[in-house]
Amino acid sequence: MNVSISPSTKKPRVLSWQAVFSLITFVFMYLPILVLAFYSFNQSPYSATWQGFTLDWYRHLFSDERILLALKNSLIVAFSAVGISAVLGTLMAVGLARYQFPGKALYRGISYLPLIIPDIAIAVATLVFLAAFAIPLSIWTIIAAHIVFCLAYVGLVVSSRLTNLNPHLEEAALDLGATPVQAFTKVLLPQLMPGIIAGCLLAFVLSLDDFLIATFTASSGASTLPMEIFSRIRTGVKPDINALSVILILVSALIAFVAELIRASSEKK
After folding, report:
1. Between vectors from CA 139 to CA 137 and to CA 144, what angle results, nearest 5°?
2. pLDDT digits (tens, 9 = 90+) for 219-240
């Protein structure tokens, strides 16, 4: 008996110019962050002069009342906007995926429009709307503005999760005597939960890091953390701002990594 053995397929080798280009790209992206982290441990109050290693700037952050107040405002805005967006975004994604109604294509396009609209356009439009109805600026107006883009991100991630689910499971639950609410809460919602969590984590990072929209919709006493950072760097970048920026980068990267990990694991299942 003749056994034919197919030749082994060789994996394509990475060309030298591709490796050099990738290295240059990573250096261009992450070298400024490394320099920022390096000078956050500088004893000198001036970032350009190195005088020794210290952790005092990180300790100073936790005793700065303005930083703590701005952090509190940012967390209130992020948790409130993400909590509301989680409910509305999930219902929006399910409605667009499971039901047919007039103008569905138009509504779908409008729902995800904040993903591509520049932040400055959203900020100006929100400010004009608030001024037209004489709504005073406060921390609640920041929350309302953040819901606009958080809703779109949560809805998009949940929609991608819905495309991988079997729609007949809900029909089977209804045939077995479950009500539509029971079919949604006990069958569909547990399957959507990884996508909901991933979308919420992504929206949380975007809300926490937002500066432009918050600047246009905040009152004088409702400063968020990015706004506080910007107000301080006008007189020069100090090591305490470097330390705060490093912490924000690490927290944002960790949350984004967890969100992507949850999303990837849910797609494999």
Report:
1. 85
2. 877 889 889 888 887 777 777 8
Which residues are bridge partners to 53 per DSSP? 42
Would the pLDDT of 1 be above 50? no
**Is the separation of the CB atoms in 200 and 154 below 8 Å?**
yes
SS3 content of the chain, % helix, strand, coil (to 5): 75, 0, 25
**Residue 175 pairs with which residues in a beta bridge?**
none
Tokens of 118: 């520049």
**Interior angle at CA 111, CA 97 and CA 189, nearest 5:** 40
Residue 147 tokens read as 């819901």
CA distances from 207 to 144, 204, 242 (A): 11, 5, 20
DSSP code per residue over 48-78: TS---B--HHHHHHTT-HHHHHHHHHHHHHH
CA dist., res. 51 & res. 159, Å (int): 52
Could you tell me the pTM of the whole model?
0.80
| DSSP designation for 114 | G
